[in-house]
Amino acid sequence: MPERLTEMLLDTWTPLVILWITVFPSMYMAPMNHSQVAPSRSSRGLNELSEEQRVLNRSKRGWVWNQMFVLEEFSGPEPILVGRLHTDLDPGLSNIKYILSGDGAGTIFVINDKTGDIHAMKRLDREEKAEYTLTAQAVDSETNKPLEPPSEFIIKVQDINDNPPEFVDGPYHATVPEMSLVGTYVTKVTATDADDPVYGNSAKLVYSILEGQPYFSVEPHTAIIKTALSNMDREAKEEYTVVIQAKDMGGHMGGLSGTTTVTITLTDVNDNPPKFTQSLYHFSVLEDIAIGEPVGRVKANDLDIGENAKSSYDIIEGDGMDIFEITSDSQTQEGIIRLRKPLDFENKRSYTLKVEASNIRIDPRFISMGPFKDTATIKIVVEDADEPPIFSSPTYLLEVHENAAINSVIGQVTAHDPDVSSSSIRFSIDRNTDLERQFNINTQDGRITLATPLDRETSMWHNITIVATEDRNPSQISRVPVAIKVLDVNDNAPELASGNEAYLCENGKTGKIIHTMRAIDKDDPKNGHYFIYNLPPEMMNNPNFTIEKNQGK
Length: 553
Ligand SMILES: *[C@@H]1O[C@H](CO)[C@@H](O)[C@H](O)[C@H]1NC(C)=O
Ligand SMILES: CC(=O)N[C@H]1CO[C@H](CO)[C@@H](O)[C@@H]1O
Description:
By secondary structure, the chain is mostly beta strands. It has five domains: 3-33 and 46-158, Sandwich (Immunoglobulin-like); 172-267, Immunoglobulin-like; 275-383, Sandwich (Immunoglobulin-like), CATH 2.60.40.60; 390-487, Immunoglobulin-like (Sandwich), CATH 2.60.40.60; 493-553, no CATH class. It contains three helices and 34 strands. It has helices at residues 3-10, 14-22, 48-57; strands spanning 27-31, 67-71, 80-87, 96-102, 109-111, 117-120, 131-140, 151-158, 172-177, 185-188, 206-211, 216-218, 224-227, 239-247, 257-267, 275-276, 280-286, 294-301, 311-318, 324-328, 334-339, 350-359, 373-383, 390-391, 396-401, 409-412, 415-416, 425-429, 439-441, 447-450, 461-470, 477-487, 495-496, 519-520. The strands form ten sheets. Strands 1-3-6-5 form a four-stranded antiparallel sheet, covered by helices on one side. It has a four-stranded mixed sheet with strand order 2-8-7-4, with no helix packed on it. Strand 5 (109-111) and strand 6 form a beta hairpin. The N and C termini lie far apart (156 Å). Residues 461, 463, 483 line the site of one 2-acetamido-2-deoxy-beta-D-glucopyranose (NAG). It is a single-pass type I membrane protein. It holds the Pfam family Cadherin.
């Protein structure tokens, strides 16, 4: 075979050639060379090889059948000649009639019943229907008797590159951690091409990046998008728009292309330490704030987000480490300084603390970038608050003998105003605790005196409340409990207990106990009662009875 012809055949005609060589029928069909522009009904575009083959194959009878090809989207002024049926049953026979049936016969494909030329009457679209199955038959034109058995053949619609690549899943969104190394996988995109994937290069895609360089790259054949720059910093630029193009014809000139957008967001890594907004904070606080109350807030900002921006706060130094504490506000990420122990302006008027904010979640990759913490100094000034008087004791216990004289002093309470500009104090008795007005108090010096007589046997305790009021600001009030215990004096005579009738027998023996006397006393001496029993004077000289102390009691 001539070299030039071989080359020609290698392209679209290869499958036909193979069939012609392997099958040896007497009837054949000849496809048209579609590189010809606008073939006409009269065109004699028969392949030379067909003639050669025809000679070769004449020895055998039957259909030479094969597949024919027709270019899709052909839109010449006249119908395109797809191919020609021919039987060499009897080359001289003029009464052969060709009949075509099957997919599109008579509408899309029309056969010239004499010449066997098949024309495509319509423009075809391979992506709509890629092949048509038809049946051809040669009959006697006069008798309509089949000269050959019918045989099927296929007309294949041959692809042209009439479909651009399409990204059906686009536009895409992808993320990649900031500070990733060059070549880190980001995502993969896919374009599809409706053209014939097995024939030619019409569906052979090559990807390239139109927008997004030098930050990202795309792998031409896999469409894998990777980072192309290291140390991309989310805090500098968070979102990138990457445009990827897919081009068919293997990316060559003249290919069709389609594009898609990939929005790539850098995700946060902890590459920023917390930083206090100020190196020195000043707070002032009234000395009388309650334990647990906030004194002030500090903030260490972190350019990162989420967990990477979270810091814990600690007091690491200072003269108020036991007085204050710092906690973090999970909402605002601020450090809140709170009071742990009471303040006393009169005792200490300022504190200095050193606080530290340190990231909670640290990425080991970035430890070398420095400590993920920061410190600041906090100065707290304690301000004087108008405080109520303070008694010299939280409670008082006073004792008084029950026979104490009216106006005698029972005891004294004292109190002072802790404020620097100290106020004088007035004392009073809370009369709700001394309804009987048993006591009086000296408003100036706090001496408590007896107002009415006491009786221990009536009331042993008088528990009263003393009120101290600042002269300058009468709303500054303190109260203290005073328990007054009434001490016993022997103001009650003993009495003999009842049931003092005794009986003895006539012949009672001398020395026999005939009765035990008992005495009682309302008083309550410290060491208990001690009674002395004597017979009345008129009995003193009667030798018949004596009274004795009962076992020392
Ligand atoms: C008064 O106070 C004393 C001492 O606290 C206590 O023992 C006593 O029970 C109290 N008496 C009354 C009547 O409250
Ligand atoms: C003073 C008195 O009553 N003495 C009497 C003591 O007992 C003797 C014996 O029973 C009497 O005789 C006494 O009179």
